[in-house]
Amino acid sequence: MTSVFTQIITGALPGRFVWQDDQVVAFLTIAPLRAGHTLVVPRQEIDKWTDLPPELLGRVMTVAQAVGRAVEQAFGAPRAALAIAGLEVPHAHVHVSPMWDMSDLDFNRIAVENDQAALDDAAERLRTALRDHGHASYVP
């Protein structure tokens, strides 16, 4: 059975993509820590980040860094948080989110965002920031 992330990547489920390349995608989570919370996911379905081939893990981190810079710009955050948890979906992924203080990493505060316009706005702000940083070829 394919993971929910594979279903989003293949288009079987909807996703608000902000980055797409041949190895990695990034899309907004529907259960954000803060507006702009993005998941960076390898296309290859591998359960644990520790099992990713080093080259693919490197690509995931390179994309996460680009998304992190865009998150800082798009949301005026002093930092972009990066977290690898891996328990919620059996498909390796990295969380990138705007961060002002440590409470912004409290995964117990996650709630499903029902405001579709807010998610659309966050995605467009990130796409714009990624384009501003020279990544237009990866922005859908």
From TrEMBL:
One of its GO terms (molecular function) is methyltransferase activity. One of its GO terms (biological process) is methylation. The keyword Chaperone does not apply. Its EC number is 2.1.1.-. Keywords: Methyltransferase, Transferase. InterPro entries: Histidine_triad_HIT, HIT-like, HIT-like_sf. A motif (Histidine triad motif) lies at residues 91-95. Residues 4-107 form the HIT domain. This is HIT family protein. Transmembrane segments: none annotated.
